[in-house]
Design brief:
Length: about 900
C-alpha cells in the first residue's frame, strides 16, 4: 500500500509545483493565456470540476458533487462508475460494471438515493437474489441527470435511513435549457471477452415559451451491453474428517498424509455467465413558473430493462460421493488441495464420482414507472413546498429453465487448475450425461414487485440576523415489497444428447486462469434456447409447485414511515450552518410462512403469519461551517442517524441450496441500525478551480446487524423431487439427514448485533495546471470498520485510491482514471454461502474526446484496461470462493447538440 500513498503524495506535490511555476511566468502574457483558456474550458472538463467545487464550497453540510459534464467526461457507462472518483466512494464490480456504491466505508444498503427528492423503486433481476435497499445505478441513463450531490453529513430536512451518506440526483430542467434544444448521442459498446458489440442511442428535446414560464423536456434512451463473466467457484470447504468413513481417507489420515482438520473443497465449478443487457428509458419533465413566487413541476419516469442471462457451470462434486476418494494431498497451511476420485470406468469403484452439469437459461424483465408532482410558493420572507408521487418496479418475468444431468467418470483434481478426467472422450460425450434420480431439470418463476408512495410538505420562514431561516416539514412514505417463488419439476428423463444444441465452451483464457486444465476450460455446452425448449416441452405440472420452495420464499412486507422535522439555518460573515431535529415513527408488517413439519400445499392454517414492529426515534443533527480566510473552509458536523436492514431480511423467509445444505433467510425481529456520526473537514481553495482538502469521519453504530450461520433442521426438497440424489448423497452420509427428508442446514440469517465503529479519513486534491491544458483530480480514503468483537464490517475497504489526470485544450480532451480499493468483506456468492472477502481490485479506464464544432463531438472510452480479476475468498486467500474475469469494455459515441 505504501507505493500507492506515495503516488498520491507525489501527484499532489507535483501539481502544486507546476501551478507555482505557471504563476511565476510573465504577468501580461500569462493573463492573456489564462483568458484564452477560460474561453475554451467553459464547456469542458474544467468547467464541470469548477461547478462541483462551487457546490462543495457553498454547502452547509459535508457535500461532494458531480455534474452532467462530469458523467459525460469520465470513462463510464453509468452513474456509479462516474461517482467512483468522489473521495470516500467505492463501488463493487461483481459483473464488471459498477452497480452499488459504498460511502465512507458503509454497506451499500445503508445509503439512500433520491431522484429529484423522491425514491425510485427497485426489484432484483438476478434469479435467486433478494431485494436490497442499496440503489442499483445501472437503472438510470446518465443522460437524464443534470447534477448529483453526495451528502456525507445529514441535515434534519433530509429523509432518514442512511448511515453512510445520501445521494441526491437532479434531472435536467427545461427552463434552464435553451428553447428547442436537441441533444443526444449514438454509439456502440464492445466487450472483448464476449467478442460482441451492442448499439446505444439517446436523445433529449427541451422547449420553453418566449416568456420562459412554461417548459417541457422529454428524453429517451436505448442502451445495450454484452456481459461475459468467466471463472471458477468453490461452494464451500469441509474438514477431511467428514470423509473419514472412506477407508482410503482414514488410511491417509492415519499415515499423516492429511490431517482431519485440513479443509477440502466440496466442489470445483467452472462458471460462465452471459448476458445481453438492454435498457429502454423515457422521461418527461413539465415545468410551470408563471412568476418568481410560484413553480410547479410534473415528472414522469419509465424504464424497461431486459436482463435475460445464461449461466452454466461444470461442477466437479469432490465431496458428493463419500467412497470415491482414492487419494488426497494437503499443504502445510491446512488446504487439501488435490486428489483423485474413481469413476464408473473402474470396475472396482463402489461409489463412482459425481460431476454435475448445471445450466440455467433465465428471463428477467424489470419495468420501473414513476410519477412525481412538486410545487413551491415563495412569499415575502416565507416559502412553502409540497411533493407527492409514486414509484413502482415489477419483474413478473423472472424465470429459469434449469437442467442438471450428471456424469460418473473418475478424475484427478487440483484446486488451482481444476479437474482432469480419467476418460476425456467419455467426459465429452453428451450421451454419458444422464438423469440423476428422477430429476433432469425444472422450471422456476420468481415474481417480485416493489412500490414507494410518498408525500412531503415543507415550510420555511426567513429572518434577519444570524439565524436567518427556520425550516419545518412533515413526510409520509410507504414501501410495499412482495416476493414469491414457484418451482415446477420436470417429469422427463434423458441425456444431454437429447437436449441438443451441443457445443464446447471455450473459456478461462485470461491471465487469471493460466495453467487451468483443458477439461475445466473446454467442456460440453448446451445452448440456452435448447435448454429452454427442452424444459418447457417436458412434463411440467403447473398445478403442483414444489411446496418447500414456495413456502420458504413467498413473503410480503409493508414499511410505513411518518416523520417531522425542524431545522434552523444560521449565517454570519464567516460562519454558517444549521441545527435541527427529526422525529420518525416506523411501522413494519412482514408476512411469511412458518413451516411446521413437512412442507405441503395448500399450507395449513396458522403457517402464514404477519409480524408487526413499531419504532420511534429522535434524530438530532448540526452542521457548522467556518470560513477561516485565505480561502480555507472548516466544517464540523454531528448527527444521530438510523437505517434499516434490506426488506427481505425483515421477514421470516428461507432460501435453501438443497445440494449444498446451506441457506439464507430473514429475521422478523431485527431492530434498526442506529449510529452517532461525526465529520470534520478542512478545505483549501488555493487557486481558481483548485482545492486541497482533508476530512475525518467517525460512526459509532449502536446496533450493527450481523449475519451468522447457524444449524437449522430443514426439509430437503430433494427428498421428494430427486430421491435418487437424496439417497446417494445425503441419507446417512452428509448433513445428519434422516429417512424423512430432514437435514442439518447451515443457514445464514441476520441477527441484532452489538456496537461497531467505522472511522477513517480522506484526502482530496484537484487542480488545473495553469494554461498547459493538463490537470489532476486525486483522492485517497482510509476506512476502518470493526464490530464489537473485532470482525470486519461488510464492504469496508481500508484503503481506496483514485488518480485521474486529464488534458483539455482546443478540440481535444483526454482522461485517465486509475482506481484501486483494498480487500473487503462482501456477501456470499451463492445462496446461503458464508460471506466472502473480495481481494484488492484495480480499475484503469481511459477516454479520448474530439469536438468538431458546436454541434458534434466524438468520445472513445476504454474500461478495465487491465482486465482485472475479481477474486473472492473465505478467510485466507488460499481458500478461494470465486475467481472471475469480465473482459475489457470499449465505447465509441457520437454526441450532437442543436
Amino acid at each position: 500500500m505504501s507505493h500507492r500513498k506515495t503516488l498520491l503524495a507525489a501527484s499532489i506535490i507535483a501539481g502544486l509545483c507546476i501551478y507555482n511555476a505557471a504563476q511565476a511566468q510573465d504577468a501580461p502574457a500569462g493573463q492573456a493565456d489564462v483568458k484564452e483558456l477560460d474561453a475554451v474550458s467553459v464547456t469542458g472538463i474544467r468547467m464541470s470540476l469548477a461547478k462541483s467545487l462551487d457546490t462543495k464550497r457553498n454547502a452547509d453540510a459535508v457535500v461532494d458533487a458531480i455534474t452532467a459534464e462530469d458523467i459525460g467526461k469520465f470513462p463510464s457507462t453509468n452513474v456509479a462508475e462516474a461517482m467512483s472518483t468522489i473521495p470516500g466512494v467505492t463501488i463493487d464490480r461483481r459483473f464488471g460494471q459498477g452497480e452499488r456504491v459504498s460511502i465512507d466505508g458503509t454497506d451499500p444498503s445503508l445509503n439512500l438515493t433520491f431522484l429529484d427528492g423522491h425514491p425510485v423503486a427497485q426489484t432484483a433481476w438476478l434469479f435467486g437474489e433478494q431485494s436490497s435497499r442499496g440503489f442499483d445505478y445501472t437503472l438510470l441513463a446518465p443522460e437524464i441527470l443534470g447534477r448529483l450531490e453526495v451528502f456525507k453529513s445529514p441535515e434534519a430536512r433530509l429523509p432518514e435511513g442512511s448511515i453512510g451518506g445520501t445521494v441526491v440526483m437532479h434531472t435536467r430542467q427545461p427552463l434552464d435549457l435553451d428553447a428547442n434544444t436537441v441533444s443526444g448521442s449514438v454509439g456502440m459498446t464492445y466487450n472483448d471477452q464476449a467478442g460482441k458489440g451492442k448499439p446505444n442511442a439517446s436523445v433529449l428535446y427541451s422547449w420553453k415559451n418566449p416568456d420562459q414560464t412554461f417548459g417541457v423536456a422529454v428524453s429517451g434512451s436505448h442502451y445495450e451491453e454484452q456481459v461475459d463473466r468467466q471463472g471458477m467457484e468453490i461452494f464451500r470447504y469441509s474438514p477431511v474428517s467428514k470423509f473419514a468413513g472412506n477407508p482410503r481417507v482414514a488410511g491417509l489420515i492415519a499415515g499423516g498424509y492429511v490431517r482431519p482438520t485440513d479443509q477440502l473443497p466440496d466442489s470445483l465449478s467452472t462458471a460462465w455467465f452471459q448476458q445481453h443487457r438492454k435498457r429502454d428509458s423515457a422521461t418527461v419533465n413539465l415545468q410551470f413558473k408563471p412568476s418568481d413566487a410560484l413553480e410547479l413541476d410534473l415528472r414522469g419516469l419509465y424504464v424497461k430493462e431486459d436482463f435475460a442471462n445464461f449461466n452454466q457451470s461444470m461442477i466437479t462434486r469432490i465431496g458428493g460421493t463419500l467412497n470415491s476418494f482414492t487419494d488426497l494431498s494437503a499443504n502445510s497451511s491446512g488446504l487439501a488441495y488435490a486428489g483423485h476420485s474413481c469413476g464408473n470406468e473402474d470396475p472396482d469403484c463402489a461409489d463412482p464420482a459425481l460431476t454435475q452439469f448445471q445450466s440455467q437459461a433465465r428471463e428477467s424483465t424489470v419495468t420501473t414507472k414513476g410519477l412525481d408532482l412538486q410545487g413551491s410558493y415563495r412569499g415575502n420572507y416565507w416559502g412553502l413546498t409540497a411533493q407527492a408521487g409514486v414509484s413502482k418496479a415489477e419483474d413478473g418475468n423472472n424465470s429459469q429453465a434449469y437442467i442438471q444431468p450428471v456424469y460418473h467418470g473418475g478424475y484427478t483434481w487440483n484446486a488451482s487448475t481444476g479437474p482432469v478426467y480419467d476418460d476425456p472422450a467419455a467426459y465429452r460425450d453428451p450421451a454419458n450425461w444422464v438423469t440423476q434420480g428422477n430429476l433432469f431439470g425444472s422450471y422456476s418463476k420468481i415474481p417480485a414487485s416493489a412500490k414507494d408512495t410518498y408525500g412531503q410538505v415543507d415550510f420555511s420562514k426567513d429572518f434577519s440576523g444570524v439565524f436567518n431561516q427556520l425550516r419545518a416539514g412533515v413526510r409520509y412514505a410507504r414501501h410495499n415489497e412482495s416476493h414469491a417463488q414457484y418451482v415446477y419439476n420436470s417429469g422427463s428423463t434423458g441425456t444431454l444428447a437429447d437436449v441438443g444444441g451441443i457445443g464446447y465452451a471455450d473459456i478461462l483464457n485470461g491471465p487469471a486462469f493460466a495453467g487451468y486444465s483443458e477439461d475445466a476450460a473446454n467442456h460440453l455446452y448446451a445452448s440456452a434456447d435448447a435448454i429452454r425448449d427442452w424444459i418447457l416441452g417436458s412434463a411440467l405440472n403447473y398445478d403442483k409447485p414444489d411446496p418447500a420452495t414456495f413456502l420458504n420464499n413467498t413473503w410480503s412486507l409493508e414499511q410505513t414511515s411518518k416523520a417531522a422535522y425542524v431545522q434552523l439555518d444560521y449565517a454570519s460573515d464567516n460562519l454558517h450552518g444549521n441545527i435541527g431535529l427529526r422525529y420518525v415513527r416506523t411501522d413494519i408488517a412482514g408476512t411469511g410462512y412458518t413451516v411446521a413439519g413437512e412442507p405441503m400445499l395448500p399450507a395449513p392454517a396458522g403457517w402464514l403469519r404477519t409480524e408487526k414492529q413499531t419504532y420511534n426515534q429522535l434524530l438530532p443533527s448540526f452542521n457548522l461551517v467556518y470560513d477561516a480566510g485565505s480561502d480555507v473552509v472548516l466544517r464540523l458536523a454531528g448527527a444521530k442517524v438510523m437505517a434499516w436492514a434490506p426488506y427481505n431480511q425483515l421477514v421470516h423467509n428461507t432460501f435453501l441450496n438443497d445440494a449444498g445444505l446451506t441457506g439464507s433467510g430473514g429475521n422478523a425481529r431485527l431492530d434498526p441500525y442506529e449510529s452517532y456520526n461525526f465529520n470534520f473537514s478542512a478545505e483549501w481553495y488555493f487557486a481558481d478551480q483548485a482545492m486541497l482538502a482533508g476530512s475525518v469521519f467517525f460512526k459509532r453504530v449502536l446496533n450493527y446487524i450481523s449475519t451468522d450461520a447457524r444449524t437449522e433442521r430443514q426439509f430437503n426438497p430433494l427428498y421428494d423431487t430427486d430421491p435418487g440424489t437424496y439417497q446417494d448423497q445425503f441419507a446417512g452420509k452428509q448433513g445428519n439427514c434422516d429417512a424423512q427428508g430432514f437435514c442439518d442446514f447451515s443457514v445464514q440469517r441476520p441477527y441484532n448485533g452489538g456496537a461497531g465503529t467505522i472511522k477513517g479519513f480522506t484526502v482530496n486534491y484537484q487542480q488545473p495546471f495553469g494554461d498547459s491544458g493538463f490537470g489532476l483530480n486525486a483522492n485517497y480514503t482510509f476506512a476502518d470498520g470493526q464490530s464489537h468483537d473485532g470482525k470486519d464490517l461488510p464492504y469496508t475497504s481500508r484503503h481506496g485510491l483514485n488518480i485521474s489526470p486529464y488534458f483539455e485544450r482546443g478540440p481535444l480532451s483526454a482522461r485517465l482514471t486509475y482506481g484501486w480499493r483494498s480487500h473487503y468483506l462482501a456477501g456470499g456468492y451463492v445462496a446461503g454461502a458464508a460471506p466472502a472477502s473480495v481481494d484488492d481490485y484495480t480499475e484503469l479506464d481511459g477516454s479520448l474526446g474530439w469536438t468538431f464544432n458546436d454541434h458534434f463531438s466524438l468520445s472513445l472510452e476504454a474500461m478495465n484496461l487491465l482486465n482485472e480479476k475479481y477474486l473472492q475468498y473465505l478467510g485466507e486467500k488460499q481458500f478461494v470462493a470465486g475467481k472471475y474475469e469480465t473482459g475489457r469494455r470499449y465505447m465509441a459515441t457520437l454526441h450532437f447538440k442543436f
